[in-house]
Design goal:
By secondary structure, the protein is an alpha+beta fold. It has helices spanning about 50-70, 95-120, 160-170, 180-190, 195-200, and strands at about 1-10, 15-25, 30-35, 40-45, 75, 80-85, 85-90, 130, 140, 145-150.
């Protein structure tokens, strides 16, 4: 058994239509986007008050919008593209041309930064470098082939963000897991490591090291 209530919530001057479903058997309030990108869907225990739902939406809508924007945020658009944290003019006839341009921009910088941190961290012999588009990770370290693979998408971020991924992968040269020693090594050579990981997860393409954290 359920009952439904339609409501409209406002945030930052924009209205979000919402369908609230009160259901028996529900234990907590859940908030998500509906089929339309700017519509909300709330499921709540049957006897939940509207005031409780309102408070829940007010508290979590900003966070939900941030996660949604992260999914749809792109480092390029019509006539522009982010290259190492800078928004530059650039138009490409298709995806292949765009990736070819980005790979050309990425190769010398990626290799130079890898060699720089290999020297700092005492990694020998030097790793072979691969660059390819990756959706589920930013980099990988193969001890079998002694090759480090970096995501082409890192070309969109400030070089400091690229450095954090390189330090992460080189730290696996010494520690295969993600334990305390691994993280200590990352922090030793990249003190801003936790902040830079957030930049990646939030897709902050225009991030610069001197800007304050929100």
């Amino acid at each position: 058994m359920k009952r439904q209530v339609e409501r409209i919530y406002s945030y930052n001057g924009k209205e979000y239509p919402c369908l609230i479903c009160f259901r028996r058997g529900m234990r907590r309030i859940t908030l998500s986007f509906g089929k339309e990108i700017d519509t909300l869907k709330v499921s709540a225990p049957y006897l939940t008050s509207l005031a409780s739902v309102d408070n829940m939406v007010k508290r979590y809508l900003p966070k939900l919008l941030l996660r949604r924007d992260d999914v749809y945020r792109l480092p390029y658009g019509e006539g522009w593209v982010y290259v190492f944290g800078e928004k530059k003019e650039g138009a490409f006839p298709d995806e292949t041309a765009r990736k070819k341009f980005l790979l050309k921009e990425a190769k010398p910088i990626f290799l130079e930064r890898l060699r720089h941190y290999e020297g700092l961290m005492g990694v020998e012999p030097p790793y072979r470098l691969s660059i390819r588009s990756m959706r589920s990770r930013f980099g990988s370290n193969s001890k079998t082939t002694h090759r480090i693979c970096l995501a082409l998408e890192l070309v969109h971020y400030d070089v400091s963000v690229l450095d954090s991924v390189i330090v992460h992968e080189l730290a696996h040269h010494f520690h295969f897991d993600h334990g305390e020693k691994f993280h200590a090594l990352c922090l030793r050579f990249c003190p801003n490591y936790p902040r830079l990981r957030k930049v990646l997860l939030r897709k902050e393409y225009g991030y610069h090291p001197d800007q304050p954290e929100e």
